[in-house]
Amino acid sequence: MSFALEDLPYAYDALAPYMSAETLEYHHDKHHQAYVTNGNKLLEGSGLEGKSLEEIVKESYGTNAGLFNNAGQHLNHLHFWKWMKPNGGGSSLPGVLAKKVDEELGGFDKFRADFINAGVTQFGSGWAWLAVKDGKLVVMKTPNGENPIVHGATPILGCDVWEHSYYIDYRNARPKYLEAFVDNLINWEYVEELYSKAV
Ligand code: MN3
């Protein structure tokens, strides 16, 4: 399959003041578009043309770095836009997810601290994740465009910590961006939907 850029699921100014229209215009229209455009060029002749996006990411990992980076970032961003919504975030998680965060991650406050810490301590570009591995919730981080699926885990929430995701709104204050993401932007209903499919 070839890659295509979907529209954002909300208006460009819908996430302000936590993520500005200017950030979303650059991040979605320029950065994500570039992953789609370059990914399609690199997919041609790769032998993976008929595969799903997830298969392309898994099969190009360690074998075709250019394709992997662009396909991985396309997959990451497809979900990233849906992992946010206006008036999102906070500690009111849907029932099943709230229970599992308590049982498997030591409660919401510990999850929040661990998720923010994963993003803050990812040296350079990358992602902070909440994923399901071996049936259990785990907080993890990856460099660059890597997605947890290459480590046998299924991501249900991810936060982009590349500077293009926060530099316009937060300058170098990556911790403040991660706090705003958790407290004001997360679309917990979408996280719950992915969790129910992953377990
Ligand atoms: Mn990005």
From TrEMBL:
It is an enzyme of class 1 (oxidoreductase). InterPro entries: Mn/Fe_SOD (IPR001189), Mn/Fe_SOD_BS (IPR019833), Mn/Fe_SOD_C (IPR019832), Mn/Fe_SOD_N (IPR019831), Mn/Fe_SOD_N_sf (IPR036324), SOD_C_sf (IPR036314). Keywords: Metal-binding, Oxidoreductase. PROSITE patterns: SOD_MN. Residues 96-193 form the Manganese/iron superoxide dismutase C-terminal domain. It catalyses: 2 superoxide + 2 H(+) = H2O2 + O2. Belongs to the iron/manganese superoxide dismutase family. Destroys radicals which are normally produced within the cells and which are toxic to biological systems. This is Superoxide dismutase. It comes from Pseudovibrio japonicus.
